[in-house]
Design brief:
Blueprint (H helix, E strand, L loop, with lengths): L2 H23 L4 H22 L2
Helix pairs in contact: 1-2
Length: 53
């Protein structure tokens, strides 16, 4: 695994965890956080792949 891939995936995981945490803290059902976290991680990963070079 290249350094670029590791940085992008790690940043995607961090984004997913932050969004999931904020979703839970906003008072929404935890199942919504389970959906929101990986969705944000996937979307963030695709964007970060092109931004981080």
């Amino acid at each position: 695994m290249s350094l670029h891939t590791a940085v992008v995936l790690l940043a995607g995981v961090v984004i997913g965890l932050v969004i999931a945490t904020l979703t839970v803290l906003s008072g929404v059902h935890p199942a919504a956080a389970v959906v929101a976290g990986p969705t944000a991680a996937g979307a963030g990963t695709t964007v970060l792949r092109t931004l981080i070079r």
